[in-house]
């Protein structure tokens, strides 16, 4: 039972940590970020399993984490009010070709971050954008202004 409780606590901790870190950081992993996540995973594993290297312990821990993930997905699906808490909400970062500074600060984004994403989407100027949205996945969606021709 101790393994199940530690696995549940680790799940809640990692879930909260990923919400705090922010969706943008997790969407674009740099080499250091990937190494950091592997180290965190190893540290969590040590904290959850301690010296229990049994197959039974492995099954209990993986089952607990899997069950909690399925439960959080179901709760998000079933209860609309929990979706923003569990999944986050899309955030508008550009409206009519202008940055929404408040939202950029809240998401810890710089105009350079957005410009990089614009270049990757073959968008040359802010004037082309009607809306830019930071999705819950951390990716940016751009809706272009209707062409006047």
Describe this entry's structure for a reader.
The termini are far apart. The chain folds into two domains: 2-87, no CATH class; 91-144, bsu07140 like domains (CRO Repressor). The chain is of the alpha+beta class and 149 residues long. Helices cover 60% and strands 12% of the residues. It has helices at residues 2-21, 23-27, 31-49, 55-78, 83-87, 101-106, 111-120, and strands spanning 91-95, 98-99, 129-134, 140-144. The chain has seven helices and four strands, in the order H-H-H-H-H-E-E-H-H-E-E. The protein has a four-stranded antiparallel β-sheet with strand order 2-1-3-4. Helix 1 (2-21) packs antiparallel against helix 3 (31-49) and helix 1 (2-21) packs across helix 4.
Largest sheet: 4 strands, antiparallel
Spatial gap, N to C terminus: 68 Å
Secondary structure: number of strands: 4
Low-confidence stretches: none
Q: What is the total domain count?
A: 2
Tally of contiguous helical segments: 7
CA radius of gyration is 20 Å
Tags for this model:
149 residues; alpha+beta; CRO Repressor; 2 domains; 4-stranded antiparallel sheet; 7 helices
Itemize the secondary structure elements and their pairings:
Blueprint: H1 2-21, H2 23-27, H3 31-49, H4 55-78, H5 83-87, E1 91-95, E2 98-99, H6 101-106, H7 111-120, E3 129-134, E4 140-144
Antiparallel strand pairs: 1-2, 1-3, 3-4
Helix pairs in contact: 1-3, 1-4
Please summarize what this structure is.
By secondary structure, the chain is α+β, with helices and mostly antiparallel strands. It is built from 7 helices and 4 strands; from the N terminus they run H-H-H-H-H-E-E-H-H-E-E.
């Amino acid at each position: 039972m101790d393994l199940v409780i530690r696995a549940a606590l680790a799940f809640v901790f990692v879930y909260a940590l990923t919400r705090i870190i922010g969706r943008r950081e997790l969407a674009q992993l740099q080499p250091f970020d990937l190494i950091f996540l592997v180290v965190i995973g190893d540290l969590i594993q040590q904290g959850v399993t301690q010296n229990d290297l049994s197959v039974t312990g492995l099954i209990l821990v993986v089952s607990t984490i899997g069950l909690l993930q399925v439960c959080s997905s179901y709760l998000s699906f079933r209860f609309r009010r929990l979706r923003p808490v569990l999944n986050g909400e899309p955030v508008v970062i550009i409206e009519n070709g202008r940055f929404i500074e408040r939202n950029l600060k809240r998401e810890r984004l710089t105009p350079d971050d957005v410009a990089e994403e614009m270049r990757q989407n073959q968008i040359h100027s802010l004037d082309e954008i009607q809306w830019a949205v930071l999705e819950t996945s951390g990716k940016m969606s751009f809706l272009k202004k209707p062409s006047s021709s």
